[in-house]
Design goal:
Helix content is about 30%, strand content about 20%. A five-stranded parallel β-sheet has the order 2-1-3-4-5, sandwiched between helices. Helix 1 links the parallel strand 1 and strand 2. The radius of gyration is 15 Å and the shape is globular. The termini are close together.
Length: about 160
């Protein structure tokens, strides 16, 4: 039986909500990707060009991550979730992928967003990490049923 890790970064709680539901749907283990320095509401103000998130995204600054996946080699499948920032993955996701060897893992990407589609985000990941096996990507709102999450992943 394949072992599944549901890893996620959540700035406001929306992605965490989806990740918890997906973990239940696939009987996976949860891992929260947490920045060493937590984001404040001011940090997340995307309309402020001087906010922390704006600077990180515009200058490709990858924030330090608080925790590490100690047993990543035990997982065959990684579900990677995050909110879409500036039409792509937050730079903390790039840091996570840089620090963790995902070679030979099947990676499913799930995102949350008020209106952005996953298309440019998924393209960014595949371009930045061409050696990784991204299987599928999907945008969720958090209002989906457990059956919808199971259907997306299929038999993992």
């Amino acid at each position: 039986m394949k072992k599944t890790l549901v890893s996620y970064f959540s700035a406001s709680g929306n992605t965490k909500n989806v990740a918890e539901k997906i973990a239940t749907a696939v009987n996976g283990d949860l891992f929260e990707i947490e920045p060493k320095e937590k984001y404040t509401d001011k940090d997340l103000d995307w309309m402020d060009k001087q906010s922390r998130s704006s600077i990180e995204m515009n200058q490709n600054i990858k924030p330090e991550i608080l925790n590490k996946v100690s047993n990543l080699n035990e997982y065959d499948i990684v579900l990677l979730g995050f909110p879409i920032w500036w039409y792509k993955e937050p730079t903390i996701i790039d840091k996570f992928l840089d620090e963790n060897d995902m070679t030979n893992k099947n990676i499913f990407v799930f995102v949350t967003s008020g209106s952005s589609t996953i298309d440019s985000t998924y393209k960014s990941l595949k371009s930045n990490y061409p050696n990784l096996n991204f299987i599928n990507g999907k945008r969720f709102t958090g209002n989906e049923s457990i059956e919808e999450y199971k259907s997306w992943i299929g038999e993992v």
